[in-house]
Write a structure and sequence with these properties.
This protein is of the alpha+beta class. The protein has 13 helices and eleven strands. It starts with a helix and ends with a strand.
Length: 454
């Protein structure tokens, strides 16, 4: 099973690498004047026309590396190496976008107050531009659909409603502020709540008539809490828009297209097969620690009603149960640390991505240690690095993690991956994904999904 998963992921990642190489070559030709840069629509058509050729090239590369003869350990190393370059690009993008949006603020109180006001103005301007763009995309939705992808209109309408709700909320907030003194007193601090329950009001009483909005959020009776949530929702949408403009796609958490499923994760923009879509956040449990749990720890780990504990193939487990849904600006978090919100597919929504083991290493962080703040994991207990670990690991591992990787092109639609629940008592909503659900696509042949859920 793991060999099939690794082979599929390697195929998708080789395809992604080839498409990036072609983009880089085209850019160099444009700079030299040997190639006339097409408009965005022509560029998409050019990519789609060459897609079959790139898929064939990806298969050829796997044959050249004799992937069938590689051991499982060699395949894991190859997957890690294929993911590293993407991870570096994403971490650097997180930092540059947060700096642009003034989220990396100075420590002094005066500077904070000034930056808070600037952030408010910048967020509203960015949301306004994003609303205009979304309306334009709705009018030309035929341009924003991936082969075999879902209809983008559903996502674009949901996103439009989410932006309009935030802008309306900000207008209402301004009306409540009568004087400059009140403006200063009511400025929202950029400090983050300690947990998602503090920020999302999950443990607060709600009016019985409160329905989930476009974000899948139920408004609380606590207006200050709602105001804070709208602030972070604004930040998430603006960061997502900036990242989409920078690398071609991003992700945003909104109400799922599956009725009753709560929130889901959508790709905003065009993510090619092999693109990293999300990180699984939360504490990491090493296998030796799982075999030596205290009674309290064992009882705590037994409670997994939301199915947000993920097991890697090497028996490291990631516990995402207490990871935030909305407050994604604190340290040990990032815009794409939303893998725990991605839903299991329904019978009409086949998986579009699968999970892959990823190790954050010292070489990956390189000379930018400040990027460590975007690694959305910590060890539940200090890791015991044994002699065997040091012999097997090619580089110094800072953190074990999981990512979700696209197995086909995805554009303006919700993403799904197979939870592969390992339990004798499956929930009613759980849909068993069979091999027949993974028909051969234009991208790759897919059989099973990699992630296991406890």
């Amino acid at each position: 099973m793991e060999r099939k998963d690794l082979t599929l992921l390697m195929l998708a990642l080789e395809f992604h690498k080839i498409s990036v190489e072609e983009d880089r070559q085209k850019k160099e030709e444009v700079e030299k004047g040997d190639y006339q840069e097409p408009d965005s629509l022509s560029s998409v058509n050019h990519y789609l026309q060459n897609r079959e050729k790139m898929i064939d090239s990806a298969f050829s590369r796997l044959e050249e590396m004799e992937i069938d003869k590689k051991s499982m350990m060699q395949l894991r190393y190859a997957l890690q190496e294929a993911l590293e370059e993407q991870v570096k690009v994403l971490l650097e993008s997180f930092a540059s976008i947060d700096e642009e949006l003034l989220l990396l603020v100075p420590d002094s109180a005066d500077a904070r107050t000034s930056n808070d006001i600037n952030i408010e103005s910048y967020l509203e301007e960015t949301l306004g531009l994003e609303l205009e763009r979304t309306i334009d995309e709705l009018a030309n939705s035929n341009r924003s659909r991936a082969p075999k992808g879902a209809n983008p209109i559903d996502f674009l309408q949901l996103k439009r409603g989410a932006i309009e709700r935030l802008l309306s909320s900000r207008r209402d907030e301004r009306h409540r502020k009568q004087t400059p003194d009140e403006l200063s007193d009511n400025t929202i601090s950029v400090s983050t709540p300690k947990s998602e329950k503090d920020s999302d009001g999950e443990d607060q009483p709600r009016p019985s008539w409160s329905e989930a909005d476009e974000f899948g959020y139920h408004e609380s009776i606590d207006q200050e809490r709602n105001r804070l949530i709208r602030y972070y929702q604004s930040i998430n949408l603006c960061r997502s828009a900036k990242m989409r403009d920078e690398i071609g796609y991003s992700v945003v958490a909104l109400q799922s297209s599956i009725p009753g499923a709560g929130r889901g994760v959508y790709v905003d923009g065009y993510a090619r097969a092999g693109s990293i879509l999300a990180f699984q956040p939360g504490p990491v449990w090493a296998k030796e620690h799982l075999a030596n749990l205290s009674i309290d720890e064992e009882r705590d780990l037994e409670r997994n009603d939301s199915y947000q504990m993920s097991l890697r193939a090497d028996d490291y487990m990631i516990d995402s149960r207490r990871s935030p849904y909305t407050v994604l600006t604190d340290e040990k978090s990032n815009l794409m640390a939303v893998g725990h919100i991605v839903n299991h597919p329904s019978p009409t929504n086949p998986p579009s991505c699968r999970s892959a083991m990823l190790n954050f290493t010292k070489e990956m962080i390189g000379s930018s240690p400040e990027l460590e703040r975007y690694i959305p994991n910590t060890y539940a207990r200090p890791r015991n690095v044994t002699l065997m670990d040091s012999l097997w690991d090619r580089d110094v591992i800072e953190m074990h993690s999981l990512v979700l990787v696209a197995t086909r092109d995805i554009c303006n639609e919700e993403i799904f991956y197979d939870y592969r629940l390992a339990s004798s008592h499956l929930p009613q909503w759980y849909h068993q994904v069979h091999d027949t659900a993974y028909e051969e696509t234009e991208d790759v042949k897919v059989d099973d999904n990699n992630n296991e859920k406890i």
